[in-house]
């Protein structure tokens, strides 16, 4: 019980914590008086200057954001002190600003010059930068946007996210496919999300190849081939009979982007070679 002096019939009254914390303006309340009877009256806080003013509690929310490196030197994992997506929902990735129409936060992040892709997980945000961009310049802007947006309580996604549809049981799934999906959900996906990425199941071929699509930090990581071969492939072949290997799948627009990226890297290497020769 909280005891406060109120401007009400000139007597001292006791008010429960729930009532005491809830009012932010003049209101009616029922209190038990010292005589044992109850009385309903207008409740206002008693201030030292004897001027009744609305009483209110304000709580300031503090936002902590940490960063973690990923195997991809061009991608960073941001870890805010608040969930980003509902628990157990699938990750959401935007590879350009045009795709970010369903996320006000992603749209803001793409306004930062040098941001190449954005991916949301349950409790993390992976941001990939352009090759020639500098994290020293990008990080302050990203921190500013994340802190302001997440502290405001605004919706991150305008559309509800769903569970991982790629690994949901489907009618006609063989025992092998069911085991592959279970391993992806329980062992492979959590490990990859630790590095700021994700993996998507795309199919199982007659040749025993598991078709997968890497996302987030892993999508353009130099060590993605090692991740696929030494990590995912080894685990699937060990636990699931009939799996002979894995096959990385790219969407058509990603294949074009990858070819352009390889041309750009080759051009940079050529320029550096010419400078050394000179």
Automatic annotation (TrEMBL):
Domain Scaffold protein Nfu/NifU N-terminal, first and last residues per copy: 65-153
Signal peptide start and end residues: none
SMART domains recorded: Nfu_N
Pfam families named in the record: Nfu_N, NifU
Domain of life of the native organism: Eukaryota
Family, similarity comment: Belongs to the NifU family.
Stated name of the protein: NifU-like protein
Source species taxonomy: Eukaryota, Fungi, Dikarya, Ascomycota, Saccharomycotina
